[in-house]
Structure formats: structure tokens, C-alpha cells
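sorry for the late reply, my laptop died twice this morning and i had to redo everyting from scratch. anyway the thing you sent over, i finally got around to it. pasting the sequence first so we're on the same page, its 394 residues, then the predicted structure underneath. double check i copied it right bc i was rushing
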Amino acid sequence: MERLVEDSKIIKDIYNGENEKLLELFPNVNFNLLESYYNSKFIENEFLLKLATDMNYLNCGELMDVLIKIKHSNISIKSLSEDLIREITELDKFIQVACGDRSSIALKKDGTFVVFDNYTNEKKYDSLPFKDRKYIAITCMAFNAIGLRSDGTVVFWNMHDWGNRKYSSYSRYNGYIDIACGTRHYVALRKDGTVVTWGNNNFGQMNDSPTENGYIAIACGEYHSVALKNDGSVVTWGNMFNQKKDISSIEGNKFIKIACGSYHSIALTKEGRIAIWGNNDANQRDGIPKSDGFIAIACGEYHSLALREDGSVVTWGYPSRLEWYSPVGGYIAITCGGYHSGALHKDGSIKTWRENNFLINSTEKVYIAISCGVTHSIALRNDGTIYIFGRRYN
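ok and here's the structure:
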């Protein structure tokens, strides 16, 4: 509570002495509500969260730094205002996006994230602020999500429950550098090259997970996981519905990239060839390209994508007609949703398609990233804003 009292005094001093100047700096702030917070009984985090939310600035630690900077700076408020507004604007921009089932996540430059509902496209909730434990990566599948923080710890949650504060911090070890999640399980990669798995094991998601070190990448399907080792080998564990999990016999065993669909996985060799294994009940393995020259791969629920060096895209799997509509030339990134696919062009435009039609063919050349969910997509613009589109649930 000592810090709370000290912070409140700083804010109150600023409020009392610089009301008009603060209104110029922060035109959206309702300063009339601040006084009611000074004498509140909130615990520290709740107090700062309420204050920061009211000021449309969700990272409380950064907010406090800005307010203290105003109080103690020798620069006049008027000359400082442009710098502060620019700083706040930059921190509020999105830098990473990911799609789940009925929600999307966008990571901000200030280390917080926002979850959006894909029915309304409106914000459902945002992350709790941590001054020294900012989020640096996010990912999700179905209704589950996992976040990697700057101190090497991870937080995981069901995207429908975060608003009720039903989230968990996985405290076993630390030093995590990469994260992935399946439908009901989570995988994290540590900087020493070891892999940690936790969560639901009803379908064998944690059976036979690797115990040695030397791994450099991870990926998750619904009930299985894949890890890439620094020698180019790949290990698969979990449930692919009694399908082949050992790919050591597949030609070209020096892999550099991996991806997982619901019940199948693919890997890319250093020569640019593609290997695929797992379930084939929905033709996931049918139509795999036999040539080399590929530089990126992605998996949907029952289909896969591969990006060639020339920027063209190849699609195969279910539905079988997907390959008819793969875009040609100039693409630099690919992503897969449930039954649709997306690609980012080098000119900044995006395209998504499904079976016999393109869902969107954007002529705006402003995008820098795209992610596909089960039935919707989210794209990141170069100005730090986002665009959510696709089929919505009733």
C-alpha cells in the first residue's frame, strides 16, 4: 500500500497543478473520475488497472512512468506533449496477431494483449498489466491460448474465461523462448533446448514427450505435438489416431521447419522438399507436392499450404479442390485456418480463399501479417491497427 499512496500523491499533485495541460496531453481522459480513486480501498493492481483503463492506457507501469516523467521533467508540458503523445501512440500499436476458434488475439507494443470476439469484432478483454513481465509472444488454438512473457515465464488460459480471471501461470522451470498449444494441451521450448508439455492427457497428448535437449522449434495439433531438433531430426508424440508418427524413413531427414494440422503434420527439408505424415481420413496427405524449392509451410485442420521461392502457393488436402484456387506469384507469408487459407503479398495486400472462391482479395497495400482461425481471419496493418473478417457465429 505504500507504493499506492505514493503513486496516488504524485497523480493528485499533477492533477491539482496541471489540469488544463493534462487535458491537452490526454484529451480522452475523464479526470473528474480520478479523485474518486484517490481514497479508494482497491489493492494496488486493481487501483492502477482502473486508472489506466480510464485513461485508455492499459499498461499501468508505463503509464506511471509517463505521469512521473510529467511531474519531474524540466521540459515544459507544452513542448513535452508531442513526445508523450507519440510515445503513447506507439506503445498502443499492435505488433502480432493470432486466431483461435471464436476469438482473436492481438499483442501490443507495450507488452499487453487484447482478445477480440469474432462475432462482434469488439474487444472482449485485455491482459492484466505487468510492468516487468510484458508479453512478447502469443498463440492459440480452438479456445485455448498461451502467452510468453519477457521474463521467460508463460501464462495459459481458456479464451472464454480470462475475463473471469481464470488464467494460470506455469511455474515449472522458466527460461522459455517459444510456445505452442493444442486443443487441450500446451508445449513450451526452453532456451536450453528442452521441451516441456502440460495440460490434458485424455488423448495421450503428453505421452512420450522428449526428455533430451537440443530442440529448436515446436508445433501442436489438436492432440499431438512435434519438435524439431538442431540436427534436423523431428520427434512426434501424442495422438494422431493410430497413424504413423515416425518420419525417420521419409526421404530428406534434415528438416528446418515444422507445422501441425489437426491430426497430421508436415516438415520442410533444407533442400525445400516437403514431408507429411499422420492421419489421412480427410485426404490430408493426398496431393503433396513432390518438387523442391519451397521456403515456408502451414497447416489447417485437414489441409496444408507451401510457399515457393518464386512467391507462388500450393494447397492440398481437404477439400480436394483447394489447389485450384491457390494464388500465384509474389507472396511472402502463408497461413491456414479451419477450411480456408491466407497469404500476404510482398506489396502489402492480402488474400484468403476456400474451395471455389476467394473470401477476400484486398487491394489495400498496408498489411504486414495475417493469421487464420477456424472460420475467420485477422490481419495486421503497418500502422499498428488490425482488421478482423470472416464468418461470424450466431
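The chain has a mean pLDDT of 76.
thats about all i looked at so far, will dig more tmrw
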